[in-house]
Amino acid sequence: MRFILIVVLIILFIYSLALVLLNGTPVSVDLWFSHVPEMRVGLLVLITLALGVILGLLLGVQVFRVFQSRWEIQRLHKEIDQLRKEQIQHAQLAATEAIAHQRSEKTSLDISPEDKSPL
What we know:
This protein is mainly alpha-helical. It has one domain (2-107). The protein is 76% helix and 9% strand. The chain has a two-stranded antiparallel ribbon with strand order 1-2. Helix 1 packs antiparallel against helix 2 (41-110). The radius of gyration is 38 Å and the shape is rod-shaped.
């Protein structure tokens, strides 16, 4: 993997160098804050491309973080709902067991030893 990355970077460097050398026509560049009297077209294209890639990556990372946070929040909400349902089921089961235990205690306590039938 590292070898492939090195090869791709070398190819990109050679392509960039060729782009600057083949497009050597000087142009005037007027920016909002400054003015460059002459710059090669190839260099201008490379600078513009590099700035675009950097800004795109930074914005992409931020947008991905927002989506990742939203996905994580949705997953946690689903997990909370599932845990609440399980908790309700356990509480209902415990309540039914308590009621059944209470009924069995009443029936065994209601029969006293004096209440024996003559049979």
